[in-house]
Structures are given as C-alpha cells and as structure tokens.
C-alpha cells in the first residue's frame, strides 16, 4: 500500500515542476466612465472611479494578493514597494485620476497594524486614511531608462507626429470615407432632434461620428431625460456605435500606411522594454501599468493582426478596458535560480470593459495559433513595428523642430555619419532632402485638402472635435481617450 502511495506522489512531481509562474506583467488600461467630450472640461465620474477601482482590485486578486490566482514571483502582497511598479499616464485629468483610482484597488489601505511606524523616540505614527498607500503615477516616463523626462513627448504616440497626422487626415479624402459620408447622411439627420442642442445640421454627419456617439452614449448613462429619446431605438444606438467604430479605427490604423499607427508602435516598444527590464532585473521590477487612449488600443490591435482574430478588435474599447501581457515560465524559479530567455513566454489577454465584470481572455498575436508564445518570438514580432526611442520617432514622423531639433541636428551634423552622406546630384544630404521632400509633400497635401474641403463643403475642426485625447493638443488628429 505504501509503495502505491509513493508511486502516486512521484507521478505528481513533473506536474508540480511544470506549474506556471508569472514573472511580471504589463497592463495597458483605458480610463473609467467620464463626462462627454462635447462639453469640456471632461472629468472622471463616480461611476468611472468605481470602475477603475474595481479593475485594480481584480488585478490585485489575480497577481498580488497572498492568495492570488496567478501571483507574480517576488511581489510584495500587502505593503507596496514602489520599485516593483512602473505606473504611467499622460498629462490628462481623466487618465491621471483613473490611474490613481486603479492603484487604490491594486494596493488598498493596510490598516493600523501594517500602517503604523515606530519612531526612534518610542512614539508611533499611524498613516492617514487607514494606512492609505501612496503610489506615484509618472506623467511621462522615458521608455528606455524609466526616468521622468520632459523631452519624451514622443512616448505620447501620435501627438505631434507630422506624418501620422497627414496619414490620418488622408482618410477624410479616401473613397471609403466619402462613400460612408454620403450613404449615412439621412441616418444622421434622422437623429438630429436628439443632438441639435450640441450639433448643428451641418455638423450632423459621419464626419463627427465619434462625437455624436459619445454625446448619446454618455447621455444614456447619466441623463434622466433625453430630447426625442424615442428615436434612440436599440438598432439606432447600435448603428451610431458601429459608425463611430469604423471612423475611429480608420483614423488609428491603415495596413498600407503603418505610420498612422504610431501610437501602437510606441506602445509596443514600451511593452517590450518593461518586460525586458523584468527579465534582466530578475523580477525586481515586475509590473508596468499605463493608462492611455482608446486609439492606442486600436493602433496596436491593427499592428498585432488582432482584427483577423475577431472583428471586435476594430471597435472602440469600452470604459476601463485593459490588455495585459503576462511574462510566464514553466521552469523552476527561486531567489537564486531564474529562467533563461528560452524558458520564458508571453501571454496576451484582453478585457473589453472593466475586468471585474468582463472576462480577461487570452488571444493569439501576430497571426499565430497559440496564445502563449516564446519570449524571443514575441520580441522579434513586436520589434517589427515598434518605435523605441525619440530619434526613431522623429525620423519616422518627419519632425525636425521642438524636441526633434537636437535629434535632427545630431543625425545630419557629422560628415562621417552614413545618414549624412551626400547624393550624387547636388550634394544635399539624404536627411535634408528628406526634410525638404516632407515639407513639399505636406504643402501639396494641405493645398489639396483645402481645395477638397472648399468643393465638398467640409470643414477642418480642432482635435477636440474628434473625441477625448490622451495628450496635449497639437493637431487635428491625435490619440483619443
């Protein structure tokens, strides 16, 4: 009998050895419910605060708590160690407050027992608010160093990226857009009584698809009464959302113009750099969290080939949605033994809406069939479209002023640099020729846009008219929150 028991126990050893360990995670999160962008200033609502707090609590129960279902190796379960977290959010009230609310759920107050400190003179001090834990949210962090930097504006993705702005604006002159604009004119006019307090008849069209949907969506959540609400049938609301999805996805991603998805490209670099820091630091910095715009979700979805997995990846993600990248291994992990790169993999998960209410589901990336892929494969696939530093961002965006002035001057100032070699005609450097070409192209496009706008009766609106933004406003098309 004893021999059988020993045999049974020995058969369990391989299973125990193969148990998965989470080494670290990167979470990209949208803000919670907010007021409409049509009537600034936009602010996080109590519902939104609740949503992100519950999301933080969900991730605590998954990764941090002592009884977590997938506790991260080496993570502090109760008292936060800020060295283990890298939390970021653009300079935006809704996103910054969402990050703060999320962190309150991730590491809640610890109470008097853990939140009391004894001083040298023998007295004790209890932390305010029941042991409330202070966790910094970095406004903008350098993806390469993790240090705060006012010169890392490129990390805010599409904001100010000249070539991305041109590419996104090209959508408004595409046959696809013009066809949709004309085809849906009657539909939008049919809901005019609902929105005429905010939009004129001239504005009530597919051009403002996102803002119209945002107004209706927020009103249906918060307003006790809506003008002519009998017009807002389930079919009508669904159509408003579908058209807004179409509008925003086409502004965020285009397969033939990768620069349009610059927001997803910069996010990809940040994800890889944070997870790599987890590996090189042997899980001393385990969690990266960033709150950002829904357009960054859409850009990344397109680049990672997720629309091929589900058409849902072409739609605007709901409030408090999140995508998570888990760094996992089946190798033995101890304080003295850490797995090699070949023993580490990545799993991608997504929750459309707060993860406390909507399942966090694994999906395959890059057109692959498996939801868990080797770390080295993940890095290669991400680096195929990632933009990981300011110099590359400036080069791909065609920017040469502001924060890019020093980058441009460095790349063109040395006669021995490959980028400063002269062409066979005229002696103009390739970099300078590129800048001249970009400026000429920009002038031609702007001229064409002005002519088309005049002939078509369209108008150019400020970027606020395209929905919530994740970063300071500098162009007509930027990251939307």
UniProtKB/TrEMBL annotation:
Q: Where is this region: Disordered?
A: 407-427
Question: May I ask which residue range the UniProt record assigns to the signal sequence?
Answer: 1-18
**Which keywords belong to this entry?**
Membrane, Signal, Transmembrane, Transmembrane helix
Q: SUPFAM superfamilies, alphabetically?
A: Phosphoglycerate mutase-like
Task: Give the matching Gene3D superfamilies.
Answer: Phosphoglycerate mutase-like
Family annotation (Pfam families): His_Phos_2 (PF00328)
- Organism domain of life: Eukaryota
Q: Which InterPro entries match?
A: His_Pase_clade-2, His_PPase_superfam, Histidine_acid_phosphatase
What residues form the membrane-spanning segments? 431-456
Molecular function in Gene Ontology: phosphatase activity
Q: Which family does it belong to?
A: Belongs to the histidine acid phosphatase family.
Protein name, per record: Histidine acid phosphatase-like protein
Please tell me the species this chain comes from.
Hyaloscypha variabilis (strain UAMH 11265 / GT02V1 / F)
The organism's taxonomic lineage, starting at the top: Eukaryota, Fungi, Dikarya, Ascomycota, Pezizomycotina
């Amino acid at each position: 009998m004893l021999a059988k028991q020993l045999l049974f126990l020995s058969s369990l050893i391989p299973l125990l050895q193969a148990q998965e360990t989470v080494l670290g995670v990167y979470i990209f999160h949208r803000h919670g419910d907010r007021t409409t962008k049509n009537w600034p200033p936009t602010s996080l609502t109590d519902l939104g605060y609740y949503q992100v707090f519950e999301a933080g609590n969900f991730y605590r129960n998954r990764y941090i708590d002592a009884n977590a279902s997938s506790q991260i190796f080496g993570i502090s379960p109760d008292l936060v160690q800020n060295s283990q977290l890298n939390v970021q959010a653009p300079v935006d009230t809704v996103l910054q407050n969402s990050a703060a609310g999320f962190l309150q759920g991730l590491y809640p107050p610890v109470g008097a027992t853990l939140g009391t400190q004894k001083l040298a003179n023998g007295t004790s001090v209890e932390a305010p608010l029941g042991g409330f834990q202070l966790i910094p949210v970095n406004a903008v962090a350098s993806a390469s160093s993790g240090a705060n930097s006012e010169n890392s504006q490129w990390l805010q993705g599409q904001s100010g990226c000249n070539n991305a702005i041109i590419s996104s604006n090209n959508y408004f002159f595409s046959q696809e857009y013009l066809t949709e604009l004309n085809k849906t004119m009657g539909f939008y006019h049919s809901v005019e009584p609902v929105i005429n307090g905010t939009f004129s008849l001239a504005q009530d069209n597919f051009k403002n698809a996102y803002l119209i949907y945002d107004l209706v969506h927020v009103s249906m959540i918060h307003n006790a009464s809506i003008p002519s609400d009998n017009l807002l049938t389930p079919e009508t609301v669904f159509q408003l959302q579908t058209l807004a999805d179409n509008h925003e996805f086409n502004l965020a991603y285009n397969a033939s113009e990768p620069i349009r998805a610059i927001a997803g490209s910069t996010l990809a670099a940040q994800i890889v750099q944070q997870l790599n820091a987890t590996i090189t630091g042997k899980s001393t910095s385990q969690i990266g969290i960033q709150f950002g715009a829904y357009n960054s979700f859409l850009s990344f979805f397109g680049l990672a080939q997720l629309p091929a997995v589900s058409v849902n990846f072409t739609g605007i993600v709901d409030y408090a949605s999140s995508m998570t990248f888990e760094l996992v291994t089946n190798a033995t992990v101890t304080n003295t033994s850490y797995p090699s790169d070949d023993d580490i993999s990545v799993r991608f998960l997504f929750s459309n809406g707060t993860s406390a209410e909507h399942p966090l589901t694994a999906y395959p990336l890059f057109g692959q069939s498996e939801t868990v892929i080797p770390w080295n494969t993940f890095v290669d696939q991400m680096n195929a479209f990632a933009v990981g530093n300011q110099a590359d961002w400036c080069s791909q965006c065609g920017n040469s002023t502001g924060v890019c002035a020093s980058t441009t001057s460095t790349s063109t100032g040395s006669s021995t640099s490959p980028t400063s070699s002269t062409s066979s005609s005229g002696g103009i450097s390739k970099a300078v020729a590129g800048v001249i070409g970009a400026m000429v192209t920009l002038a031609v496009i702007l001229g064409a846009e002005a002519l088309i706008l005049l002939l078509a009766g369209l108008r150019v609106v400020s970027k606020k008219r395209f929905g919530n933004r994740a970063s300071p406003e500098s162009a007509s098309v930027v990251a939307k929150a």
